[in-house]
Hints:
The protein is α+β, with helices and mostly antiparallel strands. Helix content is about 35%, strand content about 30%.
Amino acid sequence: MNNRLTEVGRMKVVGEGMARERGASSSTLDVSGQTGVLSFEVSPAALERYEEPVFRVLPGGVIEPANPVALEFAARLAPSDMDRLKAAAEKSTTANRALVDMVDVGIEGKQQNLQVTLVPLRDGGGTLLFVRDLTLDNSLRLALVDSRRRYKDFIEISTDFAWETGADERFAFVPPRGALGYTADGLMSIEPHALLVADSPGAEIPFLTKRRVENEELWLRRPDGRAACVIVSAMPLIARDGKWVGARGVCRDVTETRDREATLTRVRNRERVLTRIVRAFRDEVDPEAMLGVAAEALARGLGAEHCHIFRALSEEAPLNVETPGFQLAARYGDLEAREAAPVLKTIGEGAAAAEILLGGMQVLAAPARYQNASNGAVILWRTVERGTWNDDDRLLIGDIANQVGITIEQFTHHEHVLKISRTDALTGLLNRGAFVDGLQRFLVRLTRDGGFGALIYVDLDNFKAVNDTKGHKAGDDALLKVRDILVQHTRPTDLIARLGGDEFALWLTGADLTIAKTRAGQFLARMKDLEPYSAGPAKPLGMSIGIANWNRDTKETLDGLLARGDAAMYEAKRGGKGAFTVAPDAPAKS
């Protein structure tokens, strides 16, 4: 018998109507078709046991229940609903064949979807209606369709990357729009482990996980090679037999968030280093100490092994062979300053910055500036293994170089003020205070370590007559000439001072009495160079010199040494001027 009821042949019911003759034992249903006639019995008892409503529509258009379920069901239908059932029956009668139709009715204010199987009876005896309520089936089907559509929409608009892998360890599902810059087809063609930026052989990956994964961070590779950071949650798919058949999960791309966090971290690091340096500049009194703190903070903040801070030398400063044009002001680490010579050459030639590989180390340098002029350089050294310099490193060294430029200017100004406070304005020699401080340090060291030294006092003869007869300009020129004579016959390690007026003093480091006498003789031999400055033959410009030899064993104080030198000088004046006198040795103290 053909299972498609819409295509069966005519059906004939032999016997009386089911609804009216429930006492009959049975009825015979003949199904006639092209292949012959098939008959079987349908008993009223069978219809009564049928679990769904059955109606009979009589030829006059009357519709009546054919089983108890239909009787109860009819009580819930409105007259208009019964009319719809009768109208459906007419279609089957007209077609003279069984049909399946859908009829919508209202039950208790809710629409119900009925599937009605219509079977025409023999000899125009009406039509049997087998009713099946498909409302729940249709609702479930619609709910499933709506759920799938909703899921599809969420997948389409979600920023998360949903995926599923199969037992073949390849993607079985990916978003239609693709993910991470890949198209859907591109992802389906890639083996999941190939997406990992760093893959450890044999290590489990979330795409093929055998365990539940919750919010784990993972770095994947984009098509262009850039790394993408994702947060992945996944679960394994296990068959009924316990066999692993795949995994399913979601990845959320958090690359931008991680980049922002990394940028914020770098900004905070720059602020931290800058704050420390600025605070050091504010709290430190000594400019040299400021630069030392800056060198350490910069090196630590940027992960460098060494840091050099140089300041530019003035044109009149002595030539520095190791670092031409620059002098080391501060450093962190033990790298020698001379290693920076090639970098300083680049900075000295006007480069805004320098980034080179030198001696197996990465070098990052920036000029220190003050009022748009370069006055130094900041140089960082880092091993190649620690990675290349980045934009944050370049920004930080530039910011700090500007702060260092201000400090170098303060350092230079400090030195200038110090020089003024320690030197004689006319001759540039040490003044009395600086000479006494320096001499005191020498005596402390000699007392501790041993050694020699000699003090020489020089006072000009007839200097007042020069000022009185030739003027103060001539007197100043005479003092400058005396300075030249003293400097030319001493060493850089010696102290030379103008104590005031026409009085000078010298400390000869490491000199014994013999050397001191030789120096005094050389000074006196140059008195002929002072003749042009003399007031006249009667009052020649000359020198009276006193020498005081220092001996550690006497434990002589600074004041005692100065007093002996001054007394020896006045003794030379009383002896006729133009000569030197040696002071008696200081008495030994127990």
